[in-house]
């Protein structure tokens, strides 16, 4: 069996992994200790990111004709591939943060939503919060004015309620006097009726 035939399944596997990916990031992992590599893989796995080491020639062949072909120029030396299907900035964010403590890890380049980014640009992308964080901030900013309005209306109602209490008491005191007047007027009429029946 020819070498090309043996390598084709690996190329197909890489192509399948990157198909539909929101982003992929290339890193140079040389110099990472076993403990650091294990910790990095765990963090990436928890974030739903696929992290694998492939030969550069295999990746080049898998990237042919795709939006990831722009990474060919960065495929030199040992390379690992971090693939994110959902959150476009997750891989760059986690790898960049990890590289601050593990100095041996080096981000080479990446493709985020079809655009190729170099090392410096990836570092900038890493500062963008995750989609969930952005959505929660947006929701918070939308809810904030509504919450403030409700709080103000509640304070007005409470203030209005305490001011209205004496007025309600005054109205209650005046109400019986209004009801008593017709009763007082009705008393002579009853007496007149009684006198008429006696006659």
UniProtKB/TrEMBL annotation:
The keyword rRNA-binding belongs to this UniProt entry's keyword annotation: yes
Keywords from the named record: Ribonucleoprotein, Ribosomal protein, RNA-binding, rRNA-binding
Cellular component terms (Gene Ontology): ribosome
Pfam family of the protein (one): Ribosomal_L10
CDD domains (alphabetical): Ribosomal_L10
Signal peptide (UniProt feature, chain positions): none
Name under which the protein is recorded: Large ribosomal subunit protein uL10
Organism: Aequitasia blattaphilus
